[in-house]
Amino acid sequence: MSHLSEAFIREIEAIVGPAGIERDPERMRSYLSDWRNAYRGLAALVIRPATTEEVAGVVRLCNEQQVALVPQGGNTGLCGGSIPDGSGCQVVLSLTRMTKFRQVDPANETITVEAGVILQSLQEAAAEAGRFFPLSLGAEGSCTVGGNLATNAGGTAVLRYGNMRDLTLGVEVVLPDGQIWNGLRGLRKDNTGYDLKHLFIGSEGTLGIITAAVLKLYPAVRSVTTAWVALPSASAAVELIGSIRALCGDRLTGFELMSRQSVDFVLRHVHGCRDPFGDAHPWYVLIELSDTQPEAPLNQLLEIGIGEALEKGWVIDAVVASSESQVAALWAMREGISEAQNHEGPSLKHDISVPVSCIPDFIETTDQRLRDRFPGVRIVTYGHVGDGNLHYNISKPVGADDARFKAQHEAIMQVIYDSTVSFSGSISAEHGIGQAKRDAARHYKDPLELELMRAIKTTLDPKGLMNPGKVL
Fold first, then answer.
1. Residue limits of the FAD-binding PCMH-type domain (predicted)?
2. How far apart are CA 416 and CA 59, in angstroms?
3. Does some domain include residue 11?
4. Residue 322: helix, strand or coil by DSSP?
5. What is the pLDDT of residues 419-460, one digit of tens each?
6. Which of 322, 339, 356 is the last residue of a domain?
7. Which stretches does DSSP call E strand in 161-316?
8. Of 78, 114, 102, nearest to 212 (Cα)?
9. What is the pTM of this model?
10. CATH of the domain at 419
11. Whether residue 201 is found in the same domain as residue 112
């Protein structure tokens, strides 16, 4: 039951209007659990402002009344960062009504959008302007720009274009006291002090609420070549990406690594997916080259690169897509892994990064440690080799009890994170900390880093009302 007074709720409604407030328990339900139903919470109210001024008014009132706020976008996160706690005292602030495209500036290669804009809509708007916005990930049909910024989203094109931090020139933020910081500057050079936008990007709503952003656009892509390549080992993937990079430069847009276990799950559970090869192989990569020139000789470049790798023993077999439908089919193999794994029962998902050069040793070492300690576990390894980001997921042994497997989560996580840190890696590469990794971050991050983070949090949000219990 809500602890909020009727007077407070009337004041909120006066700010956002009847369409901006939700109290019905049934209609609130979708805001109180994540898309996987892995995290659930309660809320006193769901507030859906439509403008930055409305957000500021809500935040100001909540600050005065000491009501905690949980910002939320498309609610597609994997670490519970946008879900309230179980107290029923927090308020969910959904930005999904803030969907305006404020400006497209082709000459400056920028687009200014509000936080509730769906990523796919942003991609389409860029295309309509004859430009390209490169952030791409599995949830692009429902995730929002605000959520992408809050978690510093990565995706499949980081290798060439960087993550959301690299794609952002300016942000507009409502601070915890309700002030509006207008940092919407479309400048690529600005050395007038601290670059404050980087405090808020990746902060998961704990320092303020990003309401709009100036984002970079790129020339439209007019040529694409995609190949599915079988490899004998993960070390071959590291050798191959270095060779392809040297040959193709920044035409190399994607380089996705997948273990055979990953592919087996997809072939078993995702309708329409077929193995491009007759035989099973230990590892696979999906390689994508792109160019702004129509009919660029990408196939020729890729065939040269793969041919040289075949001679060196880095590649066992390869197929280059010859149509858009074949490209879609190859990407479906990659994008279907997470869904396919869910059909195999509970899975423990980890999003880590290590230096690219360490990927083979990390996989070999960590696989062995897990199999020694937890016999029969199935290790689903895939990810973005070019930026060292692996999705290192563990499925239960065949026939194992679900509850018993889930009970091993902390022990399995410790093995993986201990190994990650031993290779100078990060326990969260692109999914954030949220509530899922908060305690682990306390254990694995440098104490001085945590002290500095807490000092920033205390300075900006002294009452601790912005997404409490997340990150720190």
1. 39-220
2. 39
3. yes
4. coil
5. 999 999 999 999 999 999 999 999 999 999 999 999 999 999
6. 339
7. 168-174, 180-183, 209-216, 218-219, 223-231, 252-259, 283-291
8. 114
9. 0.94
10. 3.30.70.2740
11. yes
Partners of 380 in beta bridges = 393
Rounded distance, CA 282 to CA 143, Å? 33
Beta bridge partners of 345: none
- pLDDT per position as a tens digit, 289-319: 999 999 999 999 999 999 999 999 999 999 9
What is the tally of structural domains in the chain? 4
Do 194 and 115 share a structural domain?
yes
Which pLDDT belongs to residue 37?
85
Tell me the three state secondary structure of residue 233: coil
Q: What is the pLDDT of residue 196?
A: 97
Q: Which two tokens stand for residue 7?
A: 């007077």
Instruction: Please report where in the chains the tokens 């295309």 appear, as a residue.
Output: 127
Task: Kindly state the tokens that stand for 143.
Answer: 């995730």
Contact 154, 166 (CB under 8 A): no
Q: How far apart are CA 131 and CA 216, in angstroms?
A: 10
The pLDDT of residue 38 is 87
Burial code of 347-359, b = ≥16 C-beta within 10 A, e = fewer?
bbbbbbbbebebb
Cβ proximity of 60 and 19 under 8 Å: no
For residue 202, is it within any domain? yes
Q: 352 and 274, same structural domain?
A: no
Distance, CA of 136 to CA of 24 (rounded, Å):
34
Range of the domain at 368: 344-447
Shared domain for 311 and 277, answered yes or no, is yes
The kind and range of the H/E element at 341 are: helix 337-342
Residues of the chain with pLDDT below 70 are 1-2
pLDDT at residue 2, rounded to an integer:
57
The encoded tokens of residue 3 equal 């602890």
- Give tens-digit pLDDT for 97-115: 999 999 999 999 999 999 9
> End-to-end alpha-carbon separation of the chain, Å?
27
Does residue 375 lie in a domain region? Answer: yes
Residue 1's pLDDT is 41
